[in-house]
Design goal:
single chain, 11 helices, 7-stranded antiparallel sheet, 3 domains, Rossmann fold, Jelly Rolls
Length: about 600
Amino acid sequence: MPTPEQVMITARDGIRLATDIYKPDGDGPWPVLMERTPYGKHLPSRSEITLASPERPMSRAEFARPFTDAGYAVVFQDKRGRYASEGRYRKYLDDAEDGFDTCVWLVEQPWCNGKIGTFGLSYSAHTQAALASLNAPGLAAMWLDCGGFSNAFKGGIRQGGAFELKQATWAYKQARLSPEAETDPILAQALAKEDIKAWFTRLPWKPGHSPLRHHPDYENYLFEQWRETRYGPFWQQAGICAEAHWPDFADVPQVHMSSWFDPYTRTATDNYNGLKAAGKAGPLRLILGPWTHGDRTLTYAGDVDFGNDASLDALYGEDFLQIRKRWFDCWIKGEANGVADEPPVRVFVMGGGSGRKTAEGRLDHGGDWISSGDWPLPDAIHARLYLERRGGLSFSPALEESTLTYVSDPKRPVPTIGGAFSSGEPVMSAGAYDQVEGERFFGCRPPYLPLAARDDVCVFQTKPLAEELVIAGPVSARLTVRSNAPDTDLHVKLIDVYPPSADYPQGFAMNLSHGVLRLKFRNSWDRPTPLKPGETYQVEVRCFPTANRFAKGHRIRLDVQSSNFPLFDVNPQTGEDPVATQDWRLARNTLVLGGERASYLEVDVLPADEG
């Protein structure tokens, strides 16, 4: 196996970034492939697993070998403040300039031919978008795997005005793995003794009174993100907002890849469309699979299986390393290997399986890949499904206006059962699950009934479908609402409802997509406005995109509620931000249904011949 050359690359402020360089035999010059990571340049990345070896990721040297044999230099770098790199750790905010400075250093080396390709999963995708936002020198091609914030305020850190609490679970885990904890046994022991699940029963936290209090750098950055509740200059920085930099973003071939149970589907689709609108020729590619975050070799997510064709390896007929190698060979080396002729968009449409329970105990939901020239899918038909007073969901609105009222209690939030997120363990797990409470889901209590049985979850569903229907594209709920509180949240969830069967006697309510809107941000992300008691508002709750085949006999369901915890922080409904107050109040929330102000779900439906 190749042995790396270990160097320290100096950033513009004098901080040195630890870097491993694997070179081919000879003198070069060669193109460079680079991953910048917070997870240890010397440690195997969970990104590098294959169908043949799903349990053991390749080592860095094992990964580098096929590329060095093919004439690439391969670079792995610890980001600032992590492992062997110097400096203070600030999550995401130093990655643009540090990545830029690293590219400057690389293209100046005599063994580099001036071309750099970037790759990596999750945080390592964020680091790619960060340096591309500054149009780093030498950048020639990119593969962004489940990350690369289009706008972290709209998804990834915050969403719809609410804060994603996966940032708290990630901060705690990574504080325990930090260089400081590695060298200080007292700090390591203090962090290890914290019970993160117990701390989630004691929100809101306060600086100095949180499970991160032992490691101020991690506590400080977490509270900085949490307290920045309004969209402003903080959220427009290159490391967390490619959207603000699309005009100057590197115009190079790039893949934006995500999946239906990953928190970055909106990032991938927004970057794909935003860069295209900004005139970037790329070419741009978009891949959307059915997995949880980064799990492209798996065929399941949570309690649902999507069939043998669901993995990325199955789509391409080769493992992920070779898929990326062909990409870089095409766009960096100019090889005519067919990559340039591949369709711009590849989407996995879930559904079409037997509905039986697999040998592993998962629902056989099935699915297949489709290709397209664009996203949203050009032939899709925009459709509305209207919410009805007695829990119906119909393609035509009721003529008469009616209302449905429920009470939201911040001290009794609706528990999270699956969804599109990452890094939530051990508090929450992403993926597709039957929407029934259970002991394994945080916040659930006996007798463990369906979420639909709660009095603060409003359920709207179609009659059993007379024929199958395929929804594929953006998803949003346009709701007409009023409340007696100065602020409240609207959380919506799109669900595929299976009828009862021998394997599932009570049916199976499979979550597909979710969204949230904190209503004081209904008009502006930077100027929150309190609700006026009794006044009616028409708002849009934007969800993650999805693609699903609803089989004949199934129902399309939309749940509306005012919390989804611990995925998001709970709105105190006082008008104050959750991180800034311990006060709370009940909210009496009303949905307007039917008539001229009807509430409805908006989706894209594929024509029958395409679905």
